[in-house]
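Assess the record.
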Amino acid sequence: MDPYRERVAWPSWFYVVLGVALAVGVFGTAGALARHGPRLGAGVALAALLAVAVVFWRLRYVVLEFSPAGASFGFGRLRRHVPADRIVSAEAEPYSVARYMGWGYRMGWQPRDRAYSVIGCGRGVRLVFDDERGRRWKVFLACREPDVAIAALNS
């Protein structure tokens, strides 16, 4: 079986909301500059807004790859690879917003409990694995076809 690869992107309306928020921040900062003259604080605020926009753009999708060799996951180019011999279990399950309190890279209620999720993707793969130091991790990975991804991992 071929590896399962997927890029789970944020919904298109999210970019509109982000763009409006960025525009409000930029125009608000520009207005403050016009009223009060060039101040370091306004320039720093504008730079911070642009930095946030760049970070959101670079991390705009979850990248997944499942194969018999293991699993690879992350946002954009920031990825983690888990070899198959370290994977304890993989199960399909719904995403719990209450458990992670939102979307994106989230931390759960317990140590080493993480989620890589996007708005609009309500299902995914719960991957349990041991890291290089023997610590047990539980990671939820947003996925449109979790059963197919798990099948690729187990093939």
In short: Residues 9-58 form one domain. The chain has two domains: 9-58, 62-154. The chain has a mean pLDDT of 84.
